[in-house]
Amino acid sequence: MSPIKVGLLGLGVVGGGTWKVLTRNAEEIARRAGRRIEVSAIAVRDVEKARKLVGDQAQVCRDGFEVVRRPDIDIVVEIIGGDTLARELVMEAIARGKHVVTANKALLAKHGNEIFAAAHQKGVMVAFEAAVAGGIPIIKAIREGLTANRIQWLAGIINGTTNFILSEMRARGLSFNEVLAEAQRLGYAEADPTFDIEGVDAAHKLTLLASLAFGVPVQFDKAHIEGISSLAREDIVHAERLGYRIKLLGFTRRRNDGIELRVHPTLVPAERLLANVEGAMNAVLVSGDMVGPTLYYGQGAGELPTASAVVADLVDVTRLQTADPEHRVPYLAFQPDALDDTPILPIEEVRSSYYLRMRVLDRPGVLADIARILADVGISIGSMIQEPHGETEADIIFLTHEAREGDIDSALQRIGALAFVHSDVTRLRMEHLI
Amino acid sequence: MSPIKVGLLGLGVVGGGTWKVLTRNAEEIARRAGRRIEVSAIAVRDVEKARKLVGDQAQVCRDGFEVVRRPDIDIVVEIIGGDTLARELVMEAIARGKHVVTANKALLAKHGNEIFAAAHQKGVMVAFEAAVAGGIPIIKAIREGLTANRIQWLAGIINGTTNFILSEMRARGLSFNEVLAEAQRLGYAEADPTFDIEGVDAAHKLTLLASLAFGVPVQFDKAHIEGISSLAREDIVHAERLGYRIKLLGFTRRRNDGIELRVHPTLVPAERLLANVEGAMNAVLVSGDMVGPTLYYGQGAGELPTASAVVADLVDVTRLQTADPEHRVPYLAFQPDALDDTPILPIEEVRSSYYLRMRVLDRPGVLADIARILADVGISIGSMIQEPHGETEADIIFLTHEAREGDIDSALQRIGALAFVHSDVTRLRMEHLI
Ligand SMILES: NC(=O)c1ccc[n+]([C@@H]2O[C@H](COP(=O)([O-])OP(=O)(O)OC[C@H]3O[C@@H](n4cnc5c(N)ncnc54)[C@H](OP(=O)(O)O)[C@@H]3O)[C@@H](O)[C@H]2O)c1
Ligand SMILES: NC(=O)c1ccc[n+]([C@@H]2O[C@H](COP(=O)([O-])OP(=O)(O)OC[C@H]3O[C@@H](n4cnc5c(N)ncnc54)[C@H](OP(=O)(O)O)[C@@H]3O)[C@@H](O)[C@H]2O)c1
User: Fold this and answer.
1) What does the domain layout of chain B look like in residue ranges?
2) How far apart are CA B68 and CA B90, in angstroms?
3) How far is the CA of B272 from the centre of ligand 2 (A)?
4) Which residue in the set A264, A287, A320 is minimally distant from B328, CB to CB?
5) Chain A CB within 8 Å of residue B251 CB
6) Which residue, among B188, B164, B179, B187, has the nearest Cα to B280 in the 3D structure?
7) Which of B112, B115, B108 is nearest to B93 (CA)?
8) What share of chain B is helix, strand, coil (3-state, %, to 5)?
9) Cα distance between the two ends of chain B
10) E strands along B86-206, which residues?
């Protein structure tokens, strides 16, 4: 089947990321989507710069409308940003019957109702997973995963810049201005950080989430917005003494008489998962009346995580354009004819770190002998504790570095045979995750 | 549009929950799905018991095949469990061109390849969100949300019973057998808990997740499985001293030479989010090469959370049967003509708890005067700390119980006007979440 054709409006952070994801994972994506996804045209201001990334593999032009009007383009991806030109381009794409994918929360928070109405009438999709919480599939979760629920409330850390600043203020006892300057140096905050630090970006996203959760039109102008720029270091300290952390939350709740829609610094009990979302990470907690609370966590911005969401939307549209409805999503995520035969490894071939505990005779040389056996099969020890047990014995616990399970097996067999080892060796595996 | 018709095979924990969710949230579900979802027939062993729940609103019979063969039924929901009768019923439903929704991980982990092949040939959907991690939309996340990624590895707490037992063993220093007995009393563990505590249930689920993540056929027989029944209390203590918690993880990873697929008690660094998933909760951490790590958390079992996933699958199938593909999922989750006009509340009408900080003259009576003003507008104080500032002043911090923002405003105005209050009042909101 011929590739589906995509036009990119913008090739900046998100656009460049989208290009990279589509290129690097072309194979894997086609195995899932059932068809290749090909970028045929790109609009940017600086054509030379764009050429450096994409070479001759796509048309590169200065005029977004040229891309939107190409009859062979099936999907237009708007990643220019802003709400003037972007709006015109999106409306034109819809008018021409193109599906639209966008990461532009400002555009949708302000003009979503108009855009969705036009798209509905034309029978095209407007997908915007990348507009909220970057790579976390939170829009899909609410729109499709929690459809059985009356959603009661939703709370999100949906701006990475402010969460990074708050995390640093707390961890290092710095003031807002000190951390902001550093965040700008590190690229975590824009040169003009107003939209982030004043809560506007979070409010754009929250506005979309509230509509998805409660089934109301997009109403950004009704959101209450407070940022973190006037937050005092001492309030973070007091809050911590009282058992709370301060987070910039987007919070929306359905009550009988209306909907609360608000972004502001918020004290959250320190033991909650949301309170422990640190640095530039994002997380959204959604409470449904049937499912209870569910939480979604991941990177909320950046080149590749945001592009991950853009491309997921492209796959969604592609799947619908490609298969009959019943085959829209393959049972096991990959097309049935694209499953592969990578073997499942036997347990001896698994690699892991290990926790090993054994009881031994407490006498010089014992530890050396055991360590020697481990070293013989190439297992290195990360840490060790030894605890006396009664008068003559001791428990020894090793944490190893990563090793092959089969090597652990043979070492443990030799260790178990030593006369001064008085117990079976307890072996547990250890994973450091992220 | 006429309702879509569903047949339930089983009306136990999950079946009863499905009935309740469809009944209680019928309105909300139709607003999202674009059509009512109606249970027309139910098969159970004990017809009388079933009648008590459903009355005359659906046919109730003893023979599952009778339900599967009813020509007017569009979707068959298999929630009987087991892999003999359930398999026959599912295959018969597929042969008759019905879409299938199931919560049965044992069935799919063993016979998934056969079932999916038959369904593909017949052009019917087989949806199984409820089979893994209950109400958490983890299958949708992997199958549709992370399609841009080569998934690298995945780690999950996907059995609530064992996570509850491990949490209690650690928190209360009890042995496995002590906690198991209690879990059985509380209904967190079955009378025969073998499948849970020996890791078999987690391995069924992990098998499905690995196929979704890596695009390989379902291969339950290759999974390495160790449970928690022989885990010693002292290893939990040693692990904690070393900075780790022990969790029963399902872990699967793609390497160049093959796939690791294993369920076993695992040491996880104590500061990781997964290490802090307590009690019967579930969580799955998925690492994609583009998006990085993402985490999904919620209730992994139980009547309503599991039914939430069953009904989400029903909505998915319904949406595809109802709309043209472009309108499959409404832009804002609810059908455009089903949006409603619930107002967004002005900030004065919002209810929250508050953190209030002010600098005051340090003299008797000051606290009483401020507390009086708060009490006058009905605001009660949860806790208070006072800190001397220099010789003559003090900082007072109040945490209030929930109050109306407008009442806080008027109290703060009066407090701000007091001569002995020397600063603006800093006001932050506080949410306890879950
Ligand atoms: N960055 C993130 O992490 C992130 C995350 C989520 C959502 N988003 C959203 O994604 C969108 C794009 O953000 P970004 O960070 O990728 O922005 P960016 O790096 O500034 O890129 C913007 C791109 O649009 C092009 N462009 C600007 N004006 C144009 C015009 N008049 N005609 C043609 N091309 C034009 C630019 O071309 P030149 O390169 O030639 O200047 C550039 O390629 C925004 O809506 C943003 O809110 C971003
Ligand atoms: N419980 C959970 O939290 C949970 C979570 C995720 C997935 N699941 C899965 O969901 C499935 C159902 O679990 P469950 O907990 O709901 O089981 P359950 O409470 O034991 O219910 C089983 C139902 O099937 C009916 N049934 C059994 N044999 C039958 C037969 N031969 N003909 C007709 N009906 C028959 C039973 O009828 P009677 O009522 O008349 O006996 C009962 O209504 C299982 O595959 C399980 O693994 C369960």
Assistant:
1) 4-137+303-338, 147-298, 348-430
2) 8
3) 35
4) A320
5) yes
6) B164
7) B115
8) 40, 25, 30
9) 39
10) 99-102, 126-127, 151-157
The per-residue pLDDT string of chain A (434 residues; one tens digit each, 9 = 90 and over) reads 899 999 999 999 999 999 999 999 999 999 999 999 999 999 999 999 999 999 999 999 999 999 999 999 999 999 999 999 999 999 999 999 999 999 999 999 999 999 999 999 999 999 999 999 999 999 999 999 999 999 999 999 999 999 999 999 999 999 999 999 999 998 888 889 999 999 999 999 999 999 999 999 999 999 999 999 999 999 999 999 999 999 999 999 999 999 999 999 999 999 999 999 999 999 999 999 999 999 999 999 999 999 999 999 999 999 998 878 788 899 999 999 999 999 999 999 999 999 999 999 999 999 999 999 999 999 999 999 999 999 999 999 999 999 999 999 999 999 999 999 999 999 999 999 97
Q: Which ligand is nearest to the CA of A208?
A: 1
Q: Would you say the CATH fold of A348-430 matches that of A4-137+303-338?
A: no
Give the chain A residue whose CA is nearest to the CA of B347: A224
Q: Which two tokens stand for residue A365?
A: 């040389």
Distance CA B329, CA B31 (A): 12
Residue A205 known to be catalytic = yes
Please return the burial class of B365, using the count of CB atoms within 10 Å of its CB with bins 0-12, 13-18 and 19+: exposed
C-alpha dist (Å) from residue A138 to A17, A405, B145, B296, B361: 20, 38, 9, 10, 49
| Residue B166 contacts residue B248 (beta carbons within 8 Å) | yes
Identify the residue whose tokens are 């009355």. Answer: B55
Torsion, Cα A48 A187 A205 A16, to 10 degrees, reads 30
Given CA atoms B185, B190, B192, B194 in this order, what sign does their dihedral have? negative
Q: Please name which of B65, B43, B64 lies closest in space to residue B54, comparing C-alpha atoms.
A: B43
Hey, how many other C-beta atoms are within 10 angstroms of the C-beta on B417?
A: 9
The DSSP annotation for B178-211 comes to HHHHHHHHHTSS-SS-HHHHTTHHHHHHHHHHHH
CB A323 within 8 A of CB A35: no
pLDDT in tens, A86-121: 999 999 999 999 999 999 999 999 999 999 999 999
- What letters, b where the CB count within 10 A reaches 16 and e where it falls short, cover A241-280? ebebbbbbbbbbbbeeebbbbbbbbbbbbeebbbbbbbeb
Ligand 2 binding site (Cβ under 6 Å of any ligand atom) = B 10-15, 43-46, 49, 64, 79-81, 85, 103-105, 130, 134, 301-302, 306
Tokens matching residue B245:
């918690």
A158 touches B at CB < 8 Å? no
- Per-residue exposure over A418-429, b if at least 16 CB sit within 10 Å of its own CB, e if not: eeebeeebbbbb
The one-letter amino acid at A331: Y
- Within the 201-240 window of chain A, which residues sit less than 8 Å (CB to CB) from chain B? 211-219, 222-224, 232, 234-235, 238-239
Q: Which B residues 341-360 touch A at CB under 8 Å?
A: 341-345, 347, 349-351, 353, 355, 357
Packing angle, helices A160-172 and A233-241, rounded to 10: 70
Q: Which residue in the list A49, A205, A222, A247 is annotated as catalytic?
A: A205
Q: Which CATH architecture has domain A4-137+303-338?
A: 3-Layer(aba) Sandwich (3.40)
Residue list, annotated binding site of A for L-homoserine: 190
CATH topology of domain B147-298: Dihydrodipicolinate Reductase; domain 2 (3.30.360)
Fold of domain A348-430: Alpha-Beta Plaits (3.30.70)
User: Which residues of chain B lie closer than 8 angstroms to A121, CB-CB?
Assistant: none
Going by C-alpha positions, the residue among B127, B150, B154, B148 that lies closest to residue B139 is B127
Closest by CA position to B290, among listed A19, A361, A425:
A19
Backbone angles phi, psi at A99, to 5 degrees: -75, 150
DSSP conformation class of B346: P
